[in-house]
Amino acid sequence: MFNDMSISVSRPKGAGAVLQVTVGRTLSAVVVLRGLLIEHVMVRGYHENTHKDNGQLDLWTPSRYQVFQKLTDHAMAAMLHYHLPSSPEIAIKSFMRWLHSYTTLFSTPCHRCSKYLNNNLPPTWRDFRTLEVYHDSCRL
User: Model-level pTM greater than 0.90?
Assistant: First the structure.
């Protein structure tokens, strides 16, 4: 889909598919699918462990970094925004395009205030239509 985005698919216990998505060297996300609908998303830093000590994929432990905890919240909002049961392939493609916009998480300033950091965080919000970059406090 994108040169700097890798996706691997697994089916733990034969249930729905789980996508492990790496976006550049910025983040890794675990996307749980039920059929072709996105059911859950967990975002962690690129170097954070996505597996438990026993080797199983960790779907629930949040990132230890506040920035990726915010991205998990935004990803869940994006999952709901792009929810389209009649065309799940479009929903997944749109969500992946949105997720890919985070390759520049730490290098793009906010569209409104032009700052790289606000409250010690980079602009974590991406507009769902335009993918413009905003801090949480600047998007309102």
Answer: yes
